[in-house]
C-alpha cells in the first residue's frame, strides 16, 4: 500500500486493547481535503483518524495504526464503548452540501484497496466494517445514505444479510418471539438491533431516539428506504438479518434470551 505520510496528527494516545477488530468509516463533512487535513491535525480539535482518503484517491496516513486515534467519540457496539481502542478510523473527503459531495470512483477504489490490506493484516471480520452512524446512531449519520455499501459488499469487504429464507422461516421467527414474551413490534425491533450490535439503551422510553436508531440501520442496510419507520420492508429485512445471526444449519434458533 502506498500512503502519503507528509502530514501527521498528534491527536492520539495509547490503545487500551492490543487487538484491532473494527474498521469505522466516516466522512469529513468539510469543504475539501486540505481543510480536513488541517482540522484532523489541529491539536485543539482533539479529533483524528488513521487514514484520510481524498476525492482523487490519495490515502493519507495521519496516525500510526498502533496508536489510538480519536475518531469514534461517544459510541457503543456489542457492549463495547471504547471503540477507539479496538478500531481503525478511515475518513473520506466528502460533504453532502459542498463541492466534494461525491464518493468518487478513485476514492472508492482506494478504500477497497485499503480495506483489503487492513482486514487481511488484522484478520478483521467483514461484519466489523462499520459506519460511524452504526456505533453512534443518536448523534452521527456518516458515511450517510449515499455511501455505496453495496460496492464494499461486492468486493467482500462488508456484510449484507443473506436473503436465502422462505416465508415459513419468518413465521417460525414470529412464533419464537411470541413464545418468548415479546408483546410488541417495538420490543422485537429493539431486541434484534441490540443483537446486531447497536446501542438500544436510549430507545426504551424515547420514541425520537427509537426513530434515530431505526434510521441509522436503514442508512447502512436499506438506503432506498430511509424514513426512521419500522414499515413492512424494514421489519422483514431486520427479521432476515436476525435469522442470519441466530439460525443454525438445521434452521433452529440458537440464542439465549
Question: Notable features of this structure?
Answer:
alpha/beta; 2 domains; Lysozyme-like; two-stranded antiparallel sheet; 257 residues; elongated; 5-stranded mixed beta sheet
Structure notes:
This protein is α/β, with parallel strands linked by helices and 257 residues long. The chain has two domains: 12-154, Peptidoglycan recognition protein-like (Lysozyme-like); 167-246, no CATH class. Helices cover 35% and strands 10% of the residues. The protein has eight helices and seven strands; from the N terminus they run E-E-H-E-E-E-E-H-E-H-H-H-H-H-H. The protein has helices at 33-40, 105-122, 132-135, 149-154, 167-179, 185-196, 207-221, 232-246; strands at 12-13, 22-27, 51-53, 59-61, 68-69, 87-92, 129-131. A five-stranded mixed beta sheet has the order 4-3-6-2-7, sandwiched between helices. Strands 1-5 form a two-stranded antiparallel sheet. A hairpin with a 5-residue loop joins strand 3 (51-53) and strand 4 (59-61). The chain is elongated and about 60 Å long. The N and C termini lie far apart (44 Å).
Biggest β-sheet, characterized?
5 strands, mixed
Q: Quick one: CATH class of the largest domain?
A: Alpha Beta
Strand order of the largest sheet: 4-3-6-2-7
Q: Order of helices and strands, N to C? A: EEHEEEEHEHHHHHH
Q: Going by CATH, what is the homologous superfamily of the largest domain?
A: Peptidoglycan recognition protein-like
Number of domains: 2
CATH architecture annotation of the largest domain: 3-Layer(aba) Sandwich
Terminal residue distance: 44 Å
Beta-sheet strand percentage?
5-15%
What is the CATH topology classification name of the largest domain? Answer: Lysozyme-like
Secondary-structure content class: alpha/beta
Percentage of helical residues? Answer: 25-40%
Shape: elongated
Q: Using only CA atoms, what is the Rg?
A: 19 Å
Mean pLDDT: 95
Tell me the total number of β-strands. 7
Instruction: Flag low-confidence runs.
Output: none
Count of alpha/pi helices = 8
Amino acid at each position: 500500500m502506498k500512503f502519503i505520510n507528509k502530514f501527521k496528527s498528534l491527536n492520539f494516545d495509547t490503545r487500551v486493547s492490543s487487538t484491532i477488530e473494527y474498521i469505522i468509516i466516516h466522512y469529513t463533512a468539510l469543504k475539501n481535503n486540505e481543510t480536513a487535513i488541517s482540522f484532523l491535525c489541529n491539536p485543539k480539535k482533539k479529533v483524528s483518524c488513521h487514514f484520510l482518503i481524498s476525492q482523487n484517491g490519495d490515502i493519507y496516513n495521519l496516525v500510526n495504526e498502533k496508536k489510538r486515534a480519536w475518531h469514534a467519540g461517544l459510541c457503543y457496539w456489542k457492549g463495547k464503548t471504547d471503540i477507539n481502542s479496538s478500531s481503525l478510523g478511515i475518513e473520506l473527503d466528502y460533504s453532502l452540501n459542498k463541492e466534494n459531495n461525491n464518493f468518487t470512483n478513485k476514492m472508492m477504489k482506494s478504500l477497497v484497496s485499503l480495506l483489503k490490506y487492513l482486514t487481511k493484516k488484522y484478520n478483521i471480520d467483514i461484519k466489523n466494517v462499520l459506519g460511524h452512524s452504526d456505533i453512534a446512531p443518536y448523534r452521527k449519520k456518516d458515511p450517510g445514505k449515499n455511501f455505496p455499501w453495496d460496492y464494499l459488499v461486492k468486493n467482500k469487504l462488508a456484510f449484507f444479510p443473506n436473503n436465502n429464507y422462505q416465508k415459513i422461516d419468518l413465521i417460525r421467527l414470529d412464533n419464537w418471539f411470541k413464545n418468548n414474551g415479546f408483546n410488541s413490534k417495538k420490543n422485537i425491533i429493539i431486541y434484534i438491533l441490540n443483537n446486531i450490535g447497536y446501542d438500544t439503551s436510549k430507545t426504551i422510553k424515547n420514541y425520537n431516539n427509537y426513530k434515530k436508531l431505526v434510521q441509522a440501520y436503514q442508512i447502512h442496510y436499506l438506503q432506498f428506504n430511509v424514513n426512521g419507520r419500522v414499515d413492512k420492508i424494514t421489519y422483514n429485512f431486520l427479521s432476515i438479518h436476525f435469522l442470519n445471526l441466530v439460525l443454525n444449519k438445521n434452521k433452529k434458533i440458537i440464542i439465549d434470551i
